[in-house]
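This section describes the prediction task in plain terms. A model, or a person checking by hand, is given the sequence of a single protein chain and must write out its three-dimensional structure as a string of tokens. No templates, partner chains or ligands are provided. The sample shown here is typical of the held-out split.
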Amino acid sequence: MSNDENIYRQMLKAIVEHQLPPGARLPEDRLSEAFGVSRTGIRKVLHRLALEHFVVVEKNKGAQVNHPSEAEALEVLDSRILIEPQLTPALLQHWSSAQSQRFRTMALEEKRAEKDNQLADAIQLTARFHYELATLAGNQVLARFVEQLCYRSSLILAAYGTRGSVGCECGDHSQFLDILDQGNESEAETWMTHHLKHIKSSLILENKAEENIDFQQLFGR
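The expected answer:
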């Protein structure tokens, strides 16, 4: 793993696990000192995180952890509740034993990440599971929209979610795959609706005050 990739993964993990809370400032000099790399290297990682909407970089203000509003969090989940269940008929048209096996592999990776308390990985794998389903349904315009919603959901879960937001409390993805294997369209649509509503209800919508973060302690070698 490259040094940039290692720094990226450490920072993403810290954001998702609330060690770097929403709104926290990310000064390049202090991060550079903590990781023992140049500010140029830190800047590359920050811009990568910004492309994925986990970080906001503003000219003359530097970088900070993105802070989705409570209204945005609800709107993103509501949008997913409206769209993803409706993709079920098209999804079933493209469903096969090979696709079932592919998605079961993803579901197992999610479970492994949850078991190992790798919350950042679990959130990313959950997003991937959902937007890969949307892609398989065949409508590329909707698939790209769902992909963006899933990225934004990842940040929302990092800001407002709990471990239950990505765990079995909101429904095991393998249950959904069992329903798809049975070809039960209405049950699959109902399951996905309930699944997304559970994720929405698991959010703790409250603002958290930024703490004085010791980057050296958090990331120092």
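For orientation: The mean pLDDT is 89.
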